[in-house]
Specification:
Blueprint (H helix, E strand, L loop, with lengths): L11 H19 L7 H19 L10 H25 L7 H31 L6 E6 L3 H12 L5 E7 L8 H10 L4 E5 L5 H13 L3 E5 L11 E5 L2 E5 L8 H37 L5 E7 L5 E7 L22 H8 L7 H7 L3 E3 L6 H10 L12 E3 L1 H4 L9 H16 L3 H17 L6
Parallel strand pairs: 1-2, 1-3, 3-4, 9-10
Antiparallel strand pairs: 4-6, 5-6, 7-8
Length: 450
């Protein structure tokens, strides 16, 4: 099975949010601004800062971002923050607030946030460049002027954090794309950079499929081939344009923070609202019908295809085939109480502990048994793409009817199509819609809930 190395870059943006919010609130608390309602003011500036940051993408800083780009972000963020500060006086009728003190506060915020922004920027650059931390292993496919420029960028800008491993030349007679793939897997390569001018359309398709199925980030040095017909994202490394094939919304730190915050709050509500009292009742009922533990714990494939222990209320008699075969209709292994909790999806409730622990999300692609992951990865195209995000208790494929037993090949293919659509088009509203539809389906009943 293929996995990606653990990454911690996603923590930088949420920590920056928290630190900046702490700064603007501490400065507001200690400066003599003379506002009448402290709680209202602190809530106002905090929400205002977050909304402006979202709109200006203030925390969208990448390892190849330039100082001038950060200056533009700072200028936009603090200009709009200055405007909402003075709007507070009119909105909440604060005639006693000192305009001068407010201007001094805005200037101090600008100075402090800017200093911290550049300190963190240079610390990260030095961490990558000198300590060699937070690196991405990369290979380049292609040998021309542009690929050499890219390799020079990797080698000369160590602060970007790219560890260039090898260059492959498609024009050479000895070039074998499958040996290239084997090298990428064997050497834990994170990102693949391709010059499409040296690749045939068939080779491009093979590389795209390989990257999708093995959780590798794929980027292109552009030319005028049909790669432009795809949804692409432009980035610049130094002054060299790079195209990213797929932009996953949940890989953006703010989106990940929003989803994780919702997951924690929702799982706590479910644990203390349902599990705390339904658990003891089920423990008695399950133990009366069959011997064995209350919980069924099984290894499942999670984020980046890392295995984790998935929790369920035990709905079957103890058997040796639990890790090999899915439950089927009229499965003799399912107990009477098990039939009820599976039909109502109560057996899935302990997975809210998985959500709280960070192994799963409330909404996402359903996690598969390790055996099934290996099986489907080899026969279903782009199956591994579903591991770019955390698995979920419920998902888009499940509310569309593709839950439970895989009876025919089209079942798994349609499930993967819906999983990929969810990954590429995630939004918080989509998550809420899936949760509501899941609840409606429980009351309505589902044919494959067995």
């Amino acid at each position: 099975m293929f996995t990606r190395e653990g990454r911690y870059s996603f923590m930088i943006s949420p920590l920056s949010y928290l630190l900046d919010l702490l700064i603007i609130n501490l400065l507001a608390h200690f400066l003599p601004l003379q506002f009448q309602f402290p709680l209202v003011f602190h809530t106002y500036i905090s929400l205002g800062w977050i909304i402006i940051a979202i709109l200006t993408e203030f925390y969208a800083i990448y390892r190849y971002s330039k100082v001038t780009y950060i200056l533009r972000l700072l200028t936009r963020q603090l200009f709009f923050f200055f405007l909402i500060l003075y709007a507070f006086i009119g909105f909440f009728k604060q005639p006693n607030m000192s305009r001068l003190a407010l201007a001094q506060y805005a200037g101090l915020v600008f100075f402090t946030v800017s200093i911290l922004k550049f300190i963190s920027y240079y610390l990260l650059m030095n961490y990558r460049g000198k300590i060699k931390g937070n690196l991405r292993n990369v290979v380049v496919i292609g040998k021309n002027k542009k690929t050499q420029q890219l390799i020079d960028v990797f080698n000369e800008h160590a602060e970007f954090g790219y560890d260039f491993k090898k260059q492959f030349c498609p024009k050479e007679d000895v070039f074998n794309i499958y040996k290239c793939f084997r090298y990428i897997v064997d050497n834990n390569i994170d990102e693949i950079y391709c010059s499409v001018s040296e690749l045939s359309n068939t080779q491009i398709d093979e590389i795209i499929n390989f990257a999708d199925n093995n959780l590798k980030t794929l980027k292109f040095l552009p030319d005028n081939k049909n790669i432009y017909t795809k949804k692409l994202k432009y980035e610049y490394y130094d002054y060299l344009p790079i195209l990213s094939l797929r932009d996953i919304p949940l890989h953006k730190p703010l989106n990940a923070l929003v989803k994780r915050t919702f997951d924690i709050v929702f799982s706590l509500v479910m644990i203390f609202g349902l599990l705390i009292w339904i658990g003891p009742i089920l423990a008695i009922l399950i133990s009366l019908e069959s011997r064995g533990p209350l919980f069924f714990i099984q290894k499942r494939s999670g984020l980046d295809n890392r295995p984790f222990n998935c929790y369920k209320f035990r709905s079957m008699a103890m058997n040796k085939d639990a890790d090999k075969h899915q439950a089927r209709k009229n499965d003799m292994r399912i107990t009477k109480i098990g039939k009820f909790i599976r039909k109502t999806s109560i057996d899935e409730l302990p997975q809210f502990y998985n959500v709280l622990f960070g192994n799963m999300s409330v909404v996402g692609p359903r996690p598969h048994m390790l055996k099934h992951t290996d099986e489907y990865a080899s026969r279903v195209d782009k199956f591994m793409l579903r591991h770019f995000v955390k698995p979920g208790i419920t998902g888009l494929a499940q509310v569309k009817g593709y839950r439970g037993e895989i009876q025919k090949e089209s079942d798994i293919q349609n499930r993967i199509k819906l999983d990929i659509f969810y990954i590429e088009n995630w939004s918080f509203l989509l998550d809420l819609k899936i949760i509501v539809q899941t609840i409606l389906n429980i009351f309505k009943g589902e044919d494959k809930a067995y």
